[in-house]
Amino acid sequence: MRRTQWGLMAVSALALAACDVVRIPGGDHENQPRPSIPEGAPGPPPPTVPVDDPWGENEDADPVEVPVNNTEEPEDPVTDPVADPVADPDDPPVDEIPSDDTDPIDVSDPIDDTPDDVPAPIESPPPPPPPVKFEYFAAGDLIPGTGTGRVDQIIYAPDMVFPIKTAPTWPQSMVYRLGGAVGGDQCDPANYDIPWRDNFCEKRTSTRNTPMCPTNKVHQGQDIRVGTAADCNALRGQAKADRGLHEVVAVEDGIIQHIGTYSVQLKGTDTGNLYSYLHLNMRRLRVSALDTVSAGDTIGFVSNDFGSTPTTFHLHFEIKAPIEGEGIVHVPPYMSLVAAYERREAGIGEVVEDDTVGIASLPVIVDESKLIE
Amino acid sequence: MRTLYLPILAGLTLVACDPLIEPQSQDAEPQPVLVEDVDTAQPIEAAEPALPAPSNVAERKTATIDWNAARVDFAARETDDDGLAQVASGGALAVPVLLPDEPVGVASAGGEDALQFRPMADGYFAVKKGDIYDMIINGTDRLVARPDGQGTAIDTELVFEETMTGSQVSFSRYGASYLVEFMCNDPATAIKGSCVTEAEAVEEVEKLLIAGTR
What we know:
The complex is a heterodimer. By secondary structure, chain A is mostly beta strands. Chain A has a domain at 137-354: Glucose Permease (Domain IIA), CATH 2.70.70. In chain A, 10% of the residues lie in helices and 16% in strands. Chain A is built from three helices and 13 strands, in the order H-E-E-E-E-H-E-E-E-E-E-E-E-E-H-E. Mean pLDDT of chain A is 76; it is low at 25-113, 357-361 and 363-369. Chain B has one domain (60-212). Chain B has helices at 5-15, 35-39, 67-76, 82-86, 187-192, 198-206, and strands spanning 17-18, 60-62, 97-99, 105-106, 115-119, 123-128, 133-140, 142-144, 159-163, 166-173, 176-184, 209-212. In chain B, strand 5 (115-119) and strand 6 (123-128) form a beta hairpin. A seven-stranded mixed β-sheet of chain B has the order 4-5-6-7-11-10-9. Chain B has a two-stranded antiparallel sheet with strand order 2-8. The longest helix of chain B is centred in the first third of the chain and has 11 residues, at 5-15. Chain B is an alpha+beta fold. At the A-B interface, helix 1, strand 1, strand 6, strand 7 and strand 8 of A face helix 1, strand 1, helix 2, strand 6 and strand 7 of B.
């Protein structure tokens, strides 16, 4: 009987040894120090302040005091050179690490002492793919029957600013679209909100050539319709001298080399390229000959100046570049424009492969005597 | 019977015991947490979309200029124009300067000289005002390399082309690239490129003199 009693006492004492808190009737249990473990939590919460022994390996360490209502910012562990909150208990003490150089070991850097089994810090997520902002037919993919394009992906003006400051733009043929030699109205909505289309090397009646085109009698630049159909009608309603809704800007730092009767030519400082802008409102130019300009500076406004010859509201844009073995010649501006527009819009263009959008497949029965630029 | 008091008291105490030892989760081991994570608990900002760098950028290079040939031509030229000669001492030139044999001034906004010259980092340009057309002369040492390029051509033929604003003649000499444009002042002729014939344009280019070299 006595042996049984001693056995009960021993079991009770052992059980008590595993007991951290003993509730005493009338005691203040709520304010007793305890970890705040939410229900269902898989494990203990992370320490909110640096601790000397986060995993409780050091039995001699003082218990961590965790405030019940911890509203203060946790102390920056970097400011505490002594505490080493993530020290691997298997690592030798800092003062036992052999060192061949004279540099003191920076014990304040917790990263240096990160244990192997500590998970890697969370990295920023990869940037999302850039949004698609516009569609375009491939370089050299002219409207069928309008000439032989140059399939050239080269960006001849890699850092250029897009020549239209802000408005949406629709590079396309002016001759072989509505309002050109195929008839129709230039302000037809069908001319807007369609994929871009290369018209460098588009056929012409004049003997304009460049070694960059497969054939002779070609268009030496890219035509760019700007804005919306409503803008087009608004321009038509403006007095000729006042016309202008959409700003045209310098594509590169440089000098306004020449101002003609319907053209402005910019000489680029860095590339040596020459950029020609045609059909601006020449009465509202913002520059004079030999002005120095920076990329993005306003030159003028999109209009339809072309001497006494009518043309549509658009910008005709050319790049002349020094090509090895060719001299300074007209080069395809199309892919330079694509890249510049992508930068302007902080999005990418998507290549359109089939020719079913809008009226891009107009019947090409053109009275070439009515060809306009 | 008294000897049972102590085990009973111990048993009652156990009932009031709060076990702080949480049962081990079967799903996850308690993971040590980086202090960095605790201390830098800041919201992760979404990264901006990054445009892919284009891979099809034109490869550029600087032409090798044959200054010896330029100096020989410069010494052999025949001109009495002191103004033209002054261009030669206008500082470090990137390319040999070809100009009409006329008095020349430094190009500036509002300048009144008939022939205005402007040196550039890559070469120079000059503008000659005229009644029928303005002539623009560009010279540069920049080059867009071609995959099948054989190196800088020292001399190339004069290539005449009509343009939307008149016409132009391009060529290479001394390793540099030159372009002479004829900007027609009458819009009616400009559109047709007919204010200057090919023969007239080529003749104008052939009359250019070397006005500056190193």
